[in-house]
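Example record

Each entry pairs one chain with its bound ligand, oxidized coenzyme A.
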Amino acid sequence: MSQIIEVKVPDIGDYKDVPVIEVMVKPGDVVQAEDALVTLESDKATMDVPAPAAGTVKELRVKVGDKVSEGTLVLVLEAGTAEKPATPASQPAPAQTPATAPAAATSVIEVKVPDIGDYKDVPVIEVMVKVGDAVKAEDPLVTLESDKATMDVPAPAAGVVQALRVQLGDKVSEGSVILTLAAAGTAVTAMAAAAAPAPSQASVSPAPAAPSTSPAPAPAATAPAGKAHASPSVRKFARELGVDVSKVAGSGPKGRILHDDVQRFVKGVMAQVASGTAPTASSGTSLGGGLDLLPWPKVDFAKFGEIEARPLSRIKKISGQNLSRNWVMIPAVTYHEDADITDLEAFRIQVNKENERSGAKLTMLAFLIKACVKALQKFPEFNASIDGDNLVYKKYFHIAFAADTPNGLVVPVVKNADQKGVFEIAAETGELAKKARDGKLAPTEMQGACFTISSLGGIGGTYFAPIVNAPEVAILGVNKSAMKPVWDGKEFVPRLMLPLSLTADHRVIDGALATRFNVYVAQLLADMRRMML
Ligand code: CAO
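Structure tokens for the complex follow.
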């Protein structure tokens, strides 16, 4: 027995001419009672118009952007034609499971921790499923947290969790069995085809070798497609957080999105942002660091003149994500100082002349590295990293330096710079910079830095604001030295001045400390005898 129902906008208080911001159904869709049909948004609230009964949508009478008031006809519903999904109540059907999914042969899969780089004994910090849960391909099963990144192990296929083999706090490595999954053969194919890329095994997609400090594997993204069923309050919550609710996996009945699902989604995005491996914005930018909150402006540039599109290099894509994360997440301030390097440069030139035959050459960068090590020893907060509620002080002194290469910026690291002399450091930075330009740096040569120097001195510039390379807390930018008139108390004298730009994470380093550090580095460069004090 079917009955035609005209679904109208119910009593929505004093609101009139409220815009329709989302239409969740189309003619032919089968809906259950209380399913959200359209969403309206006033200046004060977001509200769903729910289905008054189960049935099939016959005609839509509104579209996105239409303005409606109480009594406006939203759609025509043929009630009584909807069939209850044949899923037991204890196992809600995943949102993407087609009602007509053919009965499938099942196979049991042991889901194991995939290749997670060099990490071993990584703790399980979250278990998102329990025995009996139905999962879709790519659904996160457990979350692992190394000292560098948080990563999800996703379901390799759609299926039902049969047995859990790990619990919170367990330490796992590549190959550890996480759970067994009864995968539905036919459904696997259908689901895997819908997910891109479809993994054949459980996989934490490893991030390509990062140029700076993010060698961590990429966490799996949780971004299912399909209709989003969520209550107005959940939609409002998602909207307040800037989350596109259609990207959130619903864990409620019939795949309904719950408050917790939105929270889990945000957590996932934050983890991706923190590890620098967030997916690129759907709207086309890969420099957005995965902060997919605002759509990237989409412009048809060809309309305005001739263009040529070239793919971003791998290095640019990865460093772009790291830079975006660091720019957004670190409350950083840049402090400037001039160092009088007149005597140091004269000394450098003289020593280089003396060593012309041997070919050993001192660079300004080598002196800068030595001066920074000394300053890090004097101000240990600069040699620290934030780790949750702790500040981790490092007792070693590994200094990174930005190297410009044809493919983009890479950041090799001089390890134990406190134990090396300036000749050794100059030779090592030369070798590392060459390797960087040739694309031959090993990942280990870009890891473990405590502090970074970005020297543009060979190019020019006066001052700039470098971006802190997380999890470091400060970076020193250097530009080209220039002769400047300096007042010595009696007269102006020409001095070679080196512009320093120190950016520091204000959560760890306040302005007074940053300025003391800068002044100290400048004093060391002005008179290297101070290095011995
Ligand atoms: N002031 C004046 N001259 C300087 C100088 C300074 N601060 N720093 C270097 N120079 C001079 C050098 O003395 C050298 O001249 P000589 O050959 O006569 O001695 C010349 O400039 C070239 O130096 P260089 O930059 O090639 O070598 P370096 O050891 O100083 O630096 C490296 C090496 C790898 C840091 C550099 O090549 C590089 O890639 N710099 C770019 C870093 C960068 O892109 N930073 C921005 C990151 S944020 O986007």
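The domain at 1-82 is CATH 2.40.50.100 (OB fold (Dihydrolipoamide Acetyltransferase, E2P)).
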